[in-house]
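G.,

No rush on this.
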Amino acid sequence: MQTISPRIKLLSEDHIQKIHQDSIHILAETGIRVDSIRAKKVFEKALGQDSESDIIKLPGDLIESAIQSTPQSIDIFNRLGERAFSIGGLQEKGTIYGVGVTNTWYQEVMTDELVPFSGNHVEIAARLAQTLEQYDLISTPGVIQDKDILHGEVMATLEMVSNTTKPLVLLVSDPKQFESSLEMLAHLKGDLSEKPFVIPYVNPITPLVLNEDTSEKIFTTLDLGLPFIYSSYGMSGATAPIGTNATLTMLNAELLAGLVFAQLIKPGTPVILGSLPSVFEMKTMISAYTSQTMLVNLACAEMMFYYRLPHAGTSGSGSGWGPDVLGSGTLWMNHLTSSMGKTGLAPFVGGNFDSQAFSPNLVVYSNEVIRQVRQLSYGFTMDKSALELDDIHAVGPGGNFLMSEQTLQHFLEVNEQHSQIWPGYSLEKWMEEDSPSATDHLRKHTGETLHNLQTPQDHDEIQVLGQKFIANLPGNPPLN
């Protein structure tokens, strides 16, 4: 059976080699700054030298060894112990999509009013990811703003794990709460390494800094035997060079440095590498996602595919003000290019205003976009030509295919390709319905979805166990 699938390819073999060699040059000549004494000792031991400087320069053979030591693919499970998907290589599901990430505001469905992000909003986000079938995981969707909560990031992790059975991508800024969150998950589910359902996410500081908090999180993650995402966030023109090629090369060098660090600590540890490229708009003083950043995202994915390493990229969130044209354009551009390119994981769908405001409307709309993009990327097959020719012959010139055998067999699957949010109004029907807006239909559909969210059967049990764990963390009053 021959499948015809649309694909995007940016880099030639010569391009790849140029980017790789320039990345090696950066790491050997410019080096990276290592802020952690503990991390610095790891590098010094591997290099066989002590240095008074915090700048570490990495030779090419050490980088090549790290690439060879890293697993080419990683099996990820749900928290019930069932295999959910694999990241790396030719992924059977194509690009993996997730809801997130670390917003501080929540946008109300009917009004787009902004309210501070709360634990209840984590619950909503996790249940949305659980309910909507195009999402494969949930990333930490927001930072709880209630200042009375002593361990807010641990509490957010509890809300995630109790409200979905899908895999989790964990973003926790405080290293102590990061460790406590993983300890709580181990307390709830046992050995996290056997069938990993949680993937910690860490960032170095661009340009070329392995900061102390990130180093400590990596040590903690590897102690538990978990895979993790190591992702660079660079703004071209600010923290990264203004040129597309230079940004790509420098971010690639940062990723290779993180890979070396992980493999020096624990050879063979699974690592997912990627970047979140943006550009700095000097006129408005904001970061933005543009066609340039999408190209860097695609090229980064191709570099990881060349290295045979799992990849995580951007998700299209950031530019919208609500469920609007501004946001939808970025979503379509990201999801379409990701699924047609080599992007392995797109974990951060659902944020507006540069991922500061979580929008359920955007999550629901993006679910529809991902569904259509996946249908497009799967392409079509050439295995039924004989039957189709018979069908054409039977209908003949001037006929129609409304009642043909092939139409009767396949019309339902064709109809499923149409929108599941908006009715297929003709112009006349739209006018009869008082010319409703597409946004109003989306809001209504999102509201109905929120009223029918799925809740895991063991939600209450996990909440009780998790609350007891959090209550015993340092700083909390003792339980009676």
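When you get to it, here's the other one too:
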Amino acid sequence: MDYTEIKEWLKENLNEERYFHTLGTAQCAKELANKFNLNPEKAYLAGLLHDCAKCFSNEKLLNIIKENLDVQECEMLNYKTLHAPVSAYIAQKEFNINDSEILSAIRWHTLGKLDMTTFEKVIFLADKIEPNTRDKEYSDKIITILNETNGLDKALLVCYKETIKSLVKRDLKICLLTIEIYNKLQDSIQN
């Protein structure tokens, strides 16, 4: 696939830092896909489009959600997660992406969901550890964990721990889904 058109659209619709983050996520997703025997081109495309609606105004995000999407109430608790379902919508409408695996990975890259596929986990993690804008020490820690037995779920658990701590520190609401995923990951790793 020629990514020129997508990258041009992203340059026009994202700020410079978010565009740089997007390129890093796409590359990281491709590398993680190779590591876990997934389709690297699909992962690259999902990484490229995962934040395509991130710089839309909250008003625009809410209008798109209200008019076009079925979004759970808990997803509406934090304005920082509104872009995920809208990004999946834009990927489909603007770029004719109809691959359900790609759309689902984009859709759930912020909150995650129970019983994520390996592909969804890879996109989720790539967003958190890409090298362009994320903390190197944190990314290196996650990459080391990925090499352990059951590393994918262990890495996810660390990400959820950090997310929960960050939300509490910033006095933001926590979606119950986040807690459910955290608890399920704890159980799966301990068993």
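The radius of gyration is 16 Å. DSSP finds ten helices and no strands in the chain.

Enjoy the weekend,
O.
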